[in-house]
Amino acid sequence: MELSESSQKIFPSDPLNAWTYGVAKFFLPRWHLNYMFTDSYFSLPTTWTYFFDNSLLLDTLKNYVDYKKLGPKKNSDTPRLIITAIDVLTSEHLEYDSQKQQINAKHLLASSGNPLNGLPWTNIKEKQYAWDGALISNTPLRQAFNASPQIDKNIYIIENYAKIRTELPSNMIEVFDRASDLIFSDKTRYDIRVSEKISEMIMLIENMYDVIEKNVDNFKNSSNKDFNKIKNDYQKIIEKGGSKIISLYNISRDVMENPHLLKSADFSPDTIKDLISQGE
Description:
By secondary structure, the chain is of the alpha+beta class. Helix content is about 40%, strand content about 15%.
């Protein structure tokens, strides 16, 4: 029986194949026969905490990632990578910074291990089990801002999920699809407003400090101790958050014409090429 065009939009064959058989060098479903004798819980799906084994990705990443470049370096020109995740047990926001520690494949797995897509948590170290940081925030603006608190920034935010839809969902498939967009969409508007307010306060403090420094001798009731306290407080504020957002560019992807439940598992060549084209 041939599927209708509308059915093909709701259940495209490529994502269905990925969910059923996995994707070579990326992940395999736990019901794959490969796990019949290696997975002690193979016949107990009610105890599963994930559906897909993404450990295959470890070998794939070795071919594309030079981990030697993802560690603390004295050279300031070395690119800096900050990865975010969330602790499954404590809900603590985790941050892995290549300027402070060596980044390895486990950190990359953790940052992509989304349970809503059936992927597992990653055991980073003893008693630290990490899921994708997108569960809290898919756009870690605060981490980028705090990474260098004294350096003003031009920020680019690139969104993988469409922020705007022109029509309301017309069925439950489109409802779940739109909900997925909202869960993973950029939520930095509040952070941006807070950063702008902080920048305004910092500029006010800078101006006040300049006035006091130029006229310190005229303040008859001011002692050097009082002035030094103001100076020290000012330096602390500048060191912790003295930078300003000079400009912010928000780059959103095109709206998907055919919403469907399995778009996160669509690794078909045509879709990948289309995404690359949109990215460029």
